Amino acid sequence: MNDKQKLIAPRLPRGFEDRAAGEIAAVDEMIAKIRAVYERYGFDPVETPMFEFTEALGKFLPDTDRPNAGVFSLQDDDEQWLSLRYDLTAPLARYFAENYETLPKPYRSYRAGYVFRNEKPGPGRFRQFMQVDADTVGAPGPEADAEMCMMLADVMDALGLAGKYVVKVNNRKVLDGVLQSADVTGYEQKLAVLRAIDKLDKFGIEGVRLLLGEGRKDESGDFTKGAGLSGAQQQVVLDFISGKTPDENEGVEELRAMQALFLSAGYGNDRIEIDPSIVRGLEYYTGPVFEVVLTFPVTNEKGQQVVFGSVGSGGRYDGLVSRFRREPVPATGCSIGVSRLATALKLTGNLGQQEPMGPVVVLVMDRDQTAGYQAMVSELRNAGIRAEMFLGQTKNFGKQLAYADKRNSPAVIIEGGDERARGVVQIKDLIAGKEAAKSITDNVEWKTERPGQFECARSEIVEKIKALPAVAAWLARQT
């Protein structure tokens, strides 16, 4: 390369993140537990592509020539706009409509994958993140919505969060009835009211009252414009979120039916509760809505103790599939945010293995014997054990050992000329060696003791490696 040639700076785009082996292993373990619960409920996996025709994501289309507000878009060779999926629900609606004649109804499926949002990134806000969704399409009754709530509760239990969460349930039909009673009819004003209700946990009743009225000024002096309701209108909304039972309507009946299902299945208010402050999308959701909220305290960026908050949500969206078909198609579903849930599991010590076991490394002591070293590696791999031959350029024993240590290897295999002549190898248990070395302070003693190192016959390599505690535990997890 020309010395004057400018090097490309290795930069990660804002709003995206790299993931190393330890995090991938931990998240994969978490998703496997979620999948197991979904499948226990009778949901089957389905996978849709990351790109969809932009019109299929309808509700996110901007009013511009290039549809890139909110979504990442490009034109294909036919000059049709394609967009990276914004969520996992719109692609499911398209898939169901396209395969309507062949799919069972109701259609129960789950999906796990990345979604993409062309929005301004910030702390905890990414442009690419993973979700795990489950949906039932074609079931109109509250039984399907109740099942989603119970399944979310079971997922939290399976992840070790029992006693640290509650699934909160409300109904958009109830909210719509309250808005009607309060004579709130304009779209923007409805949106402002729902946003105010959504701030109940954060600002309390008085904070919501201010947001329902002229507005609220925070500690920094920033002012948030309110919904502009009169005192009488405000009181209707405040009575509702304070627990006053609204007038009978279809939404109230559905909540009562769901509550009866929860109780009959053994889900008490400590796991699933009706909460009038739960608000979801203004147009997207059409019936029951729910959130799974973690209730344990964490310290926020201001040093304040607050509850962790929502890690999943969902609800009934009866209008989404109907964009593709003339007949009404009821649907309900839930979505779990993987990154946020992983953060919660880290805080509670339930994320699982943080650093996956690396491969057993066969050290290369003599370059002209690589065929023999490769044979050892093949024997280990054929026995289901992760293994590799050292492929670096160095002949230095210490540097090869340091490489294995950096790979988180459970052991290395050493065969020099003396061992080869006697038909043996040296196995160095790196994990046991580290523990034993803690009590050794003298370098000479360490070289003499060779902590964790033992000799075995060349023919016993697989048997001896399998017997190492770290390898035995890893093999047990694979079956």
From TrEMBL:
CDD domains: HisRS-like_core, HisRS_anticodon. The keyword Nucleotide-binding applies. Residues 29-359 form the Aminoacyl-transfer RNA synthetases class-II family profile domain. It holds the Pfam family HGTP_anticodon. Its EC number is 6.1.1.21. Its main location: cytoplasm. One of its GO terms (molecular function) is ligase activity. Gene3D superfamilies: Anticodon-binding domain, Bira Bifunctional Protein, Domain 2. InterPro entries: aa-tRNA-synth_II, aa-tRNA-synth_II/BPL/LPL, Anticodon-bd, Anticodon-bd_dom_sf, His-tRNA-ligase, HisRS-like_core, HisRS/HisZ, HisRS_anticodon. PROSITE patterns: AA_TRNA_LIGASE_II (PS50862). The keyword Coiled coil does not apply. It is an enzyme of class 6 (ligase). Keywords: Aminoacyl-tRNA synthetase, ATP-binding, Cytoplasm, Ligase, Nucleotide-binding, Protein biosynthesis. It is found in: Cytoplasm. SUPFAM superfamilies: Class II aaRS ABD-related (SSF52954), Class II aaRS and biotin synthetases (SSF55681). It catalyses: tRNA(His) + L-histidine + ATP = L-histidyl-tRNA(His) + AMP + diphosphate + H(+). NCBIfam families: hisS. Belongs to the class-II aminoacyl-tRNA synthetase family. Homodimer. This is Histidine--tRNA ligase. It comes from Devosia nitrariae. The gene is hisS.
